Amino acid sequence: MTSNRRTFAIISHPDAGKTTLTEKLLLQGGAIHLAGEVKARGDQRRARSDWMKIEQQRGISVTSSVMTFEREGVTFNLLDTPGHEDFSEDTYRTLTAVDSAIMVIDAAKGIEPQTRKLFEVCRLRSVPIITFVNKVDREGRPVFELLDEIADMLALDVSPQMYPVGMGGEFQGILDFASGEVVVPEGPSREFKGKRVADFDLPEEIAENVELAQIGYPEFDLEAYRNGDLTPVYFGSALKNFGVTELIEAIARIAPPPRAQPAGDKQIAPDHGEVSGFIFKVQANMDPNHRDRIAFMRQVSGTFKRGMKLIPSGLGKPIAIHSPILFFAQDREIADTAEAGDIIGIPNHGTLRVGDTLSEKNQLRFTGLPNFAPEILRRVQLKDPTKTKQLRKALDDLSEEGVIQVFYPEIGAQHIVGVVGQLQLDVLISRLSAEYKVEAALEASPFATARWLKGDAKLLDEFESFNRANLARDRDGDLVFMAKSPWDVNYQVEKNPELSFSATKER
């Protein structure tokens, strides 16, 4: 049954409350039983999706975690995306694996740059979006100002489904348009504990605004929402539990079931005859005790059964999948079966890589999971030269995950790592130390960016003989031009019109 699957991501600017909302959705689904882990002196709360050491230190999500939970007959697959602006590449790949998204906006800040960037990725793939305006129990901007900003900046129709009764110190609850009830705060912490009032006496100004909101904005239209043209807007406070129930019910009711996925010029629907899927993420060392390596597969079609053989496009020969994993917050269960829309983890030893298609007959290639040209390039300086082998293993692992890209220069021995954002370098150094016991430093590289080279073999050989000092191989052995500046790229493009200098590489 794929119609009861909802595979979605949560996107937001850092600090908009995405991690807290994730946690509350998991609580609603029974996947966790405690709201966070309170450290000494009320130190920073951590949600179950943030497990990596650097995340715990900085309070940000830097990997995309997967959490599955069930509620009232619906299976929810929640993909928690990195919120930090430096993680656009991992986030982009995660958004290829979902059918819808929740966009979390801070009521005081509105649309922020990272929110807009992530929204544009969703728009590229026509991913429908539900908007959740968070932190309405604090002082925030006027409701109409927020709604109009979403409509104007994102070029979307907005359809409010709720309305906050006051904000900040004057917060009295949230009116749910569908039920006509106001969910009201209770107790000294003014949380929502389930009390709903049907005959709430709205202040006159609020009553007028509610009427304006219902008349002045489009009614909800399912087709427009699923086409990515309209966003229903919910208001709430993830921290105080307002609006979370309405949000999860909306995902169950209106978010699309598994959608067809592009494979070249075909669209592969969930009812396609064979089991198929694609790897959108690889994660090493989720459990440091076991040095494990999990490939995350978005199942596109068919009914997967434990033990069946699938052929990875990067390998060409079948592998038996004996221990497929479903993720329930930080807990794991062996999956006996899985359906289209599910995310399953496949333990492996470097066999599976980001972008691989898995299928029964090896006649499909899912498209749209590119590598991006790095914007920052650094040389890796090993502090203990005896650990060269461990460093190579670590860099291979991390490049397979998509955290970094590794380039091996044609001349010179030092590895060059490429990333799309500065924070990935911090993650690299942190993980080398914590997971591989390799102490390393990064130093400036003479190169500013890289381009993948393609073209006639003879022309490539000629280009290589003249430009060996500026060439490297990526971990697939593909030829890469290492450029000292954008001018350098443009000069070579003009000089070698028969060759392709590509900023992306499809796998």
Structure explained in plain terms:
This protein is α+β, with helices and mostly antiparallel strands. It folds into three domains: 5-60 and 97-255, Rossmann fold; 262-359, P-loop containing nucleotide triphosphate hydrolases (Rossmann fold, 3-Layer(aba) Sandwich), CATH 3.40.50; 370-506, Peptide chain release factor 3, domain III (Alpha-Beta Plaits), CATH 3.30.70.3280. 25% of the residues lie in helices and 32% in strands. The strands form eight sheets. The protein has an eight-stranded antiparallel sheet with strand order 28-25-27-26-30-31-29-32. It is globular. The two termini are 30 Å apart. It holds the Pfam family EF-G_D2.
Question: Cα distance, first to last residue?
Answer: 30 Å
CATH superfamily of the largest domain: P-loop containing nucleotide triphosphate hydrolases
- Measured as a percent range, the helix fraction is 25-40%
Query: Judging by the overall fold, what is the CATH architecture of the largest domain?
Result: 3-Layer(aba) Sandwich
Query: Can you tell me the overall shape?
Result: globular
Number of domains: 3
In terms of DSSP E residues, the strand content is 25-35%
The count of β-strands is 33
Structural class: alpha+beta
What is the CATH third-level topology name of the largest domain? Answer: Rossmann fold
CATH top-level class of the largest domain: Alpha Beta
DSSP helical segment count: 12
Largest sheet: 8 strands, antiparallel
**Whole-number mean pLDDT:** 85
Q: What strand line-up does the widest sheet have?
A: 28-25-27-26-30-31-29-32
Low-confidence stretches: 36-48, 60-64
The value of Rg in angstroms is: 24 Å
Subcellular location: Cytoplasm
Protein name: Peptide chain release factor 3
Family: Belongs to the TRAFAC class translation factor GTPase superfamily. Classic translation factor GTPase family. PrfC subfamily.
Keywords: Cytoplasm, GTP-binding, Nucleotide-binding, Protein biosynthesis
